Amino acid sequence: MVRILLDTARKLALKIASYGAMHLIVAMLVAWAITRDWRMALAVGAVEPVFQTIAYSIHDRVWHRIERRRMLSGVEEASEAVTARLGVMTPEEQMRAHGGHGHHGHTHALPRSFRQVALKTVTYGVMHFAVAVTVAFALTRDLRIALAIGIIEPLVQTVFFTVHDRIWSRIEARKARRATELAEA
């Protein structure tokens, strides 16, 4: 149990650190492109990612809990499908278990739907915009520059966030497959 907790903490720390490094580079480049001032770009690049990384870790934890709940409900649905296939549930029980809709043997091989990924990305973008504008305004005291950084930087970061999140999802899925293969061997 302790090993699992340490492994989970290590993975989370690596994920947050990789996000922070990616964010630092993108924030500096965007701030420099807007201000053409390396000092301001370095200030925004050094300060804004710290606050974004804190906000990201909170955002990621919330979404991890949401995904875990959905996965658990998917396990329950899968167990109902198995009992239905074994003939343990009558067709009437199947209809009742699925809210009046028949169960047609669909798979839950991909627990993360496009809608869920899109919603996670949108909530990240909104959070990022608010933090970016606040930090940029605190550093520049110029509302136009703060809004420009607050609009452009989160759009660029949202694209990188989605790529970052998908890469980590694939890494975690690959490790889970390996663990399952080792357990079955």
What can be said about this structure in brief?
The chain contains 5 helices and no strands. The protein is mainly α and 185 residues long.
> Multimeric state of these chains?
single chain
Helix percent band: over 70%
Would you list the SSEs in sequence order as H and E? HHHHH
- End-to-end Cα distance, whole Å, is 22 Å
Proportion in β-strands: under 5%
SS element count, helices: 5
- Uncertain runs with pLDDT below 50, 5 residues or more? 101-111
**Largest sheet at a glance?**
none
Rg measurement, Å: 22 Å
Give a written overview of the molecule.
With 185 residues, the protein is mostly helical. It is built from 5 helices and no strands. The protein has helices spanning 2-35, 38-85, 91-97, 114-140, 143-184. The longest helix is centred in the first third of the chain and has 48 residues, at 38-85. The chain is elongated.
Characteristic key phrases:
185 residues, 85% helix, elongated, 5 helices, single chain, mainly alpha
Give the helices and strands, then pairings.
Blueprint: H1 2-35, H2 38-85, H3 91-97, H4 114-140, H5 143-184
Helix pairs in contact: 1-2, 1-5, 2-4, 4-5
